[in-house]
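User: I'm putting together notes for a lab meeting next week and I want to include a structural view of one of the chains we've been expressing. I don't have a solved structure, so I'd like a prediction I can at least talk through. The sequence is below, exactly as it appears in our construct file.
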Amino acid sequence: MKHKKYQKLLINVIIAVLIYALVMMAIQFGWIGRQFLSMIVPVCTNVMLAVSLCLIVGFLGELTLGHAAFMSVGAYSGALVTLNVPLPSWLALALGLVIGGVTAALAGVIIGVPVLRLRGDYLAIVTLGFGEIIKSIFNTLGITGGAGGLSGIPMLTTYRNFTLVFILMLIVIVVVANLVNSRQGRAICAIRDNYIAAEAAGIKISKYKVMAFVISAFFAGVAGVIYAHNISILKPGNFDYNQSIEFLVMVVLGGMGSIRGSIIAAVILTLLPEVLRGVADYRMLVYSIVLIAMMLFNNSALKAKLVARKNMRKSTEVSKEA
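Assistant: Thanks for the context. Below is the predicted structure for the 322-residue chain, given as structure tokens.
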């Protein structure tokens, strides 16, 4: 069993190293155009957002439509730090990443504690409303530039800083993957598989729900800081409900409860609009066909069900430890 675990880890490490090497070679030797160079960091950002949202939607089993709100909280918080704190750029960015993540996590606590008592459609509607409230607040605050946006943000996470962004993306993936395979992760999955049985087994539902929500919000905030320092200007309209739905589509297309599927879906859906730019007249048609094909040929959902059955068998172990 341990041999298979280490073998899988080695394969994942090799894949990550190969992807990093290929991207760095493409940047150094100019194998890709400027248009696709500008998409490298957004791909990593969307992977972070999709993986963090997968923790709530895929593993916790709750539908949320406010992920872009946590991203916006982190983006504005981190940008305000780098704009107003007199520190070297790398140190200001590091501080901005921490502040952005923590601020988003606090927002996750504020909305998570009262709201996560709800389930299903009610939770989706409330988180959607929360996202619109956050957007309205940023529209009216003078410190965030209001509707005109917050401009002049130093571009510290462009493709020239791909190494940093790639490392942060790997950290998010590793942390979420290890959390899912831990005792807490098994408790979270048990809640998804059977809410009543998990509660009857002694699992503290509210505790694990808030934990998943806060961790997901923290990583969304970190991704927001990277996003802010990549585009240099933030506008509240960039974080509307359409953005949240886009992240949700990535998780659903990748397969509910599949981190690898979320990563692949995030990469494809980020690059696809640029790839289809040459066929502008049929762009949306081809985009829709690709989405349907991904759903038809995606077997991650079946794998997720098999994993869910395994987690149900492990839930009795969790109940003894919780």
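A couple of points you could mention at the meeting. The CA atoms of residues 90 and 309 lie 46 Å apart. The two ends are 25 Å apart (CA to CA).

User: Perfect, that's what I needed.
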